[in-house]
Amino acid sequence: MGRSPAPPNRNRNENNDEMKKGAWTSEEDQQLINYIQKHGHGSWRSLPKLAGLKRCGKSCRLRWTNYLRPDIKRGEFSQEEENVILHLHSIIGNKWSTIAARLPGRTDNEIKNYWNTHMKKKLLERGIDPMTHRPRTDLFSCLPQLVALANIRELLEHNQLAQNLQYLNLFLQGNTGLSTLLNRTNSIPQIQEENPNLMNEFPLEVGQESEEISQLVLVGNSNHVTQPLHDDQEVSIMNLQTSNYDHDIVGHGYGQSRFTSVNSSSSSSSATWTPIPPLMDTVITNNSGALESSTTVSYGGNTGGDGGGSSYEWPEYLFEDSFLDQNLREMC
DNA sequence: AACGGGACCAACCGCTCTCAT
DNA sequence: CATGAGAGCGGTTGGTCCCGT
User: Fold this and answer.
1) Would you say the C-beta of A62 is within 7 Å of strand B?
2) Fewest CB atoms less than 10 Å from the CB: which of A11, A14, A68, A184?
3) What CATH code would you report for A26-68?
4) Which of residues 10-39 of A touch strand B (CB under 7 A)?
């Protein structure tokens, strides 16, 4: 028993000049299929010679396992398969073969390709880091929000408008997106009437230094606040893409969090932020009823629209308070 | 119709792992 | 235990197709 003697150089194929590369022809495929059906693949190294193929054993193995195997499943990935990939990837990362083992008929190569070309892109569009499965925290992804905050702060410094400060609080509290802020036209008294606890939760007083704006510490997300801004109130936003998104957040995990403000004489700006919103329209809703254990994120355009949108189910933990809280703290 | 750029995916490359000697 | 062959894995490449201009 034991292995056969090694070839002269394992890293160099002795028949390199005759070895064929590139796409497989249907004749080669048939040759490989016929041989394996008759004899099994046995030693991949010796298979090409025995099968009369001018390919290396490795190439034959890949061709068989990724394409010719009879149990290969072809076609679009189902929603369920996507969920499995997403879930497993969030746990084990780029272990494609392990993920493939949980998806009968799918190969590691196919899953890897699907991840890199479809799912990775979807996650990035959702503002989620595909490697960590957490909201992106890199500077680039935060840039629109940072610019917006800087502009708002500058406005407040120039005008010293207490109202604007309150609106900023509302905006941050609501995590509803800049476009919502821009569209508000109601008055502060009305906002206070509809949100009686607001002033208790936001101890900022009229006339306080704008520095405190940068000292806001986010504890979590909050209720969706939809009070519009006065028509004559204008906030400079500098062509932000963020004006395209509005979060409509419904359901568990949201609605109980709040902001607190921290009084500090520190000169360093430490404004913190909500989970980074996606760079395109996003609607987050719960699937009521049948899918209580999962949360669906619909994306890609208007709901009920042109079919360009699709639905996506995300790991439940992405929407749990503990998860959100942890990520928010990491952003601080 | 021609062209360019992006998306997709099969295949390759190089490294690591497993296991027999 | 050390060595090395064979197999497996994950990252990358390159060819093809599609779509917009």
Assistant:
1) yes
2) A11
3) 1.10.10
4) 20-24
